[in-house]
Design brief:
heterodimer, A: Rossmann fold, Beta-Lactamase, Helix Hairpins, five-stranded antiparallel beta sheet, 17 strands, B: Rossmann fold, five-stranded parallel beta sheet, 21% strand, globular
């Protein structure tokens, strides 16, 4: 019977009649069954529980345990085994009882081979249906498990993202949200079905409500930057997108809140820098135009001496405007990190010597004495020549500009185990403590009785700081108002890349 | 009617200070000038000028504000035009103007002018102040 399926149906015959047991066994084996036998109830229960039989034929009357008890026991442990009760004492009552506790059928003895096989065939069909149903149930349970796992996982993911997510339906009720949404909206809880009108700031509601008046084919997202907490504490970008039904009508709206506070802070600093730059650029232009206007207005009487003075001063302002533009370009190059650096071995000693040479004219004009001490056998450094020259130039230039007539400039180069130390000291005007604090800020210039006739961009030290930082160096300043200022730069002997190579070569 | 003769001029940009001074002098005004707010306050009390023209951004970003506020609180200061000149129309993102009464209340001055200062505009501001008072 199992020509289609390769598996033999497993059947057990529990009967105390040896002849019947053996006869049936032979018959069924010939019909392709895998047959086991038990000669009494006890043995039958043991075997019937131990193995998962497809079918069982149980004799009703056995000397030790009756067939009904055997049936009960087997079905208790193997509910999917299809059992038959066989008996010569067929009575209506026992048949009903047997069926009640789960017997598939009732085979009256004596039975013909045809009768038995028919019963078993039907029983086996049933067994297969039971197993199939079982498999399907297990499958379904597995799938549900998987589904709920999937859902939990999705929930976990959405809950873990830093962006706030809130979904509202057409009636403007909250239907889904994550932890970040609570955080940004400063709420302890959102109840599903709660009206957003009661809980959302008006500005956020507006971005959601835009979608309610739009036609179905409008799938655009809307975005708005909203300040949720004042003083730059919390700025969010609220983006809303419609969720369509199958037919394209609006099902709801999903709101995503992205924290852009940091971005806003940077933007503010940048715009502040731009307005400072604009102011700094405008001042020399305004001054120059002012002088030109005076010179052009014939009704204003100006002496020749004044004329020369105005032209000279215009010239000075325009020159400083030019250096300001150059400084700005330098800063932008350093900030954008697009500087193509040519890192090579350079000698700080040579650079300092050259720079001092450059300022010789100004040094002599102010009658300054320069002392330059350089340790013997000072190692070279690996850096960009132009950047280091710029750094040294700015420091030496300051020590000349802010020095007193007849003053002194002390420059020193030495090394310790890790750094090359470069110091530039002057006997100039020095700085007050509050000026020292702002020293490296963009456009900061100490304004006092000494400095009013000194021109500068306010960017020189800001540039020095940026260059030193970019080589992982440090800069310190020691200053006393009216006495002088000393800058001390520590330059790492090895660049990080070299350290890596050193480590790798071991 | 009051006339304006003596003007206190305050600007930390020495070039602008010089130019405005020359222009005002060419129009017949007497000019007292200084490049810092501390000295300006002393000169104001000492000379009791008929008008004050001051730069907004000097030692600090708001030095001009503070000085004009102080002058406008002074009994004499209340009676004279105080005009702020600035090249910072939009410093740190804030617009300085005195077009609304609220701004006038906050920024204690009678007019704001942009640099470089046009002398005719400046004189017009003086005139309109005198007409009003």
């Amino acid at each position: 019977m199992n020509s289609i399926e390769n598996i033999k149906p497993k059947v057990i015959i529990i009967d105390d009649e040896d002849a019947l047991r053996l006869g049936v066994k032979k018959l069924l084996q010939m019909e392709g069954y895998d047959v086991s036998t038990a000669a009494n109830g006890t043995e039958g229960i043991a075997l019937g529980i131990k193995e998962d039989f497809d079918l069982a034929i149980i004799d009703l009357k056995m000397p030790d345990i009756d067939g009904i008890t055997v049936l009960k026991n087997i079905r208790e442990h193997r509910p999917n085994t299809v059992c038959f009760i066989a008996t010569a004492y067929a009575s209506y009552d026992s048949a009903v009882q047997a069926t009640k506790i789960g017997s598939q059928g009732y085979i009256p003895k004596p039975f013909s081979a045809e009768e038995l096989l028919n019963h078993l065939r039907m029983g086996y069909e049933k067994r297969k249906l039971i197993l199939e149903a079982d498999r399907l149930r297990a499958d379904r349970e597995n799938r549900l498990l998987e589904l709920s796992f999937e859902r939990t996982r999705l929930n976990t993911i959405i809950n873990s993202i830093d962006d706030g997510v809130l979904v509202v339906n057409r009636d403007e009720q909250a239907v889904y949200f994550n932890a970040s949404a609570l955080k940004y909206l400063n709420l302890h809880e959102i109840f599903l079905g709660e009206s957003i009108a009661d809980i959302l700031p008006p500005k956020i509601r507006e971005v959601i409500e835009i979608h309610f008046d739009k036609p179905n084919n409008d799938s655009k997202s809307y975005s708005e930057q909203i300040e949720l907490l004042p003083d730059e504490k919390l700025f969010v970008q609220a983006t809303t997108t419609r969720i369509p039904n199958h037919d394209g009508t609006l099902a709801g709206v999903v709101l995503v809140l992205k924290n852009i506070s940091e971005f806003k802070r940077v933007e503010f600093i940048k715009s502040q820098f731009v307005s400072m730059v604009a102011h700094e650029l405008k001042a020399p232009i305004a001054a120059t135009i002012g002088f030109l206007n005076l010179l052009l207005q014939s009704e204003i009487e100006i002496s020749d001496e004044q004329k020369t003075d105005f032209l000279t001063r215009s010239n000075v302002r325009l020159s400083s405007l030019l250096s300001l533009v150059n400084d700005l370009l330098d800063i932008s190059r350093i900030e954008m990190q697009t500087v193509v650096r040519e890192i090579k071995e350079i000698s700080l000693k040579d650079i300092v010597t050259d720079v001092i040479q450059l300022f010789n004219l100004d040094i002599n004009k102010k009658n300054l004495s320069v002392i330059f001490n350089c340790e013997d056998n000072l190692p070279t450094i690996n850096a960009d020549f132009n950047e280091i020259t710029r750094m040294v130039t700015n420091l030496v230039s300051n020590s000349v500009k802010y020095n007193k007539v007849g003053g002194e400039i002390k420059i020193e180069l030495k090394e310790n185990s890790r750094y090359i130390i470069f110091t530039v000291g002057d006997s100039g005007i020095g700085m007050k403590p509050n000026e020292k604090k702002k020293l490296f800020l963009d456009f900061f210039r100490a304004k006092n009785e000494f400095t009013k006739n000194i021109h500068g961009t306010g960017l020189g030290l800001a540039i020095v700081k940026r260059i030193v930082d970019s080589y992982s160096g440090t800069i310190e300043v020691d200053t006393e108002y009216g006495v002088g200022t000393t800058f001390r730069i520590q330059f790492p002997k090895l660049l990080e890349t070299e350290i890596t190579t050193t480590i790798n070569s071991h | 009617m009051k006339t304006i003769n003596k003007i206190l001029l305050v600007d930390d940009d020495l070039d602008i200070l010089e130019q405005t001074k020359v222009m005002l002098q060419s129009k017949g005004y007497t000019v007292i000038d200084t490049d810092n707010s501390e000295n300006a306050w002393k000169l104001f009390q000492e000379h009791k000028p008929d008008a004050v023209v001051l730069d907004l951004i000097m030692e600090e970003h708001d030095t001009g504000f503070i000085l004009s506020y102080k002058i406008k609180k002074d009994p004499h200061g209340k009676t004279i035009p105080v005009i702020v000149v600035t090249s910072a129309a939009y410093v740190t993102g804030y617009k300085f103007d005195s077009s609304t009464s609220e701004e006038k209340e906050w920024l204690k001055c009678d007019a704001v002018l942009n640099k470089p200062v046009n002398i005719e505009d400046l004189i017009k501001k003086f005139d309109s102040f005198i007409e009003k008072s």
